[in-house]
Amino acid sequence: MTEKPQAPNPANAIIAELLELARTESADKLFELNAATLYPELYDRAAASFDGWDAALASALVALATQSATRSTRARKPRQADEEQVVRRPGPQAEQPLFARTSGGAFYALDPAEVPLSDAPVVPATPQGAGRMEALKYIGEPDGVVVFSDRGRYFGMDTRMVPQWDGEMQNRRVQDVVHLDDGEQIIEVVERDLLRYSSGYGASQKGGPNRMIHVTRGAKAKASEVSELTYTLDREGRDAFLLNDGDVPVAVMVGEAENSVFCASAMGKAIHFDAADIRSMGLAAVGVNAMKLDGDADAIVGAFLGNKIEQVAIITEQGLGKRVDFAEFRPQSRAGAGLQLLKLQSGDRVASVVACKADEDLGIFTSRGRLHRVPATAFARMGRPAKGDQQIDLIGDEVVVRLVALPCGGV
Fold this sequence. Notes:
alpha+beta; globular; GyrA/parC_rep; four-stranded antiparallel sheet; four-stranded mixed sheet; Neuraminidase; 6 helices; 2 domains; Gyrase/topoIV_suA_C
């Protein structure tokens, strides 16, 4: 006897219609009063099937979350056996503050409990009017910090004066502490003591004289002796480096003079060269070419100093990510085309690259202000030619904009 096909579930059909509305219409049209006017037939069916419009929306949200979790599980390949043995032990760093910056120019210290590990992306709260969170940085608990702006200036700050944000209230704005010009924003923060140990007192504690190296999106790099920078607290700001018109700094790094530099481009190339290939210049200099870019659409998306680096984490705008052993990037000469970083899919670009360790965390930021903090081992360890695994499910035209390395925040 042939079985009769089952009739479609009316509730599932309603959920499918609600999800389609959510994808195509603005959120305010889904408010109950608006929906009853704009979509009366759907509203009546949803209210009857789910005992209310809000219950129908909640059921659609649960269905969407379940679908996303299923797609994520299928997309991600099993981790390598050696990575499954990584021991995660949250240390005191897990409770030390993080430095955050937002699209609206806010810069503040943040309790790491505000950005915990999560099974799905979240939208972190930010101060009123600050815009979406764009980056997080961990540098411990120094007595003072030096912040660099997108216009090549730097400011010394006592850590106690850095604005604080507890998720609900902010005690001050960064503009109340240092004198930024209109539209000028903080883009980097480093420990102030790295500038102190340039020579003489304490030099042996930090491994010898340090240099400051910055790299821009346009692939310019410049090194300066930190003795040229002032260690004192300075609210007015001083010039650290010059920038070509339209160029912006991607990374400002302070470290030992005997070092190497790693840069990665949006078109999927990376270069690793001796830091000595960038000679020290005065502050009033633009610098030299760090690597050869692949046309006007290419740009540097990440850079860091190479001493003691173990792995590199990479993510593309479409959310494909992986980790690569740093040893795979052999040293080359500065200003070359570099080595393959990963295999890019058509239309995709590298969004961000950071140095990391297997027992740390990685934070993925998107253009919609969402953050997904995951163990670093969520990014599979692969070779340079691999394209990576899907690390985050994106919504609509959303893209990944940044990847950050953070201390281990939990087991």
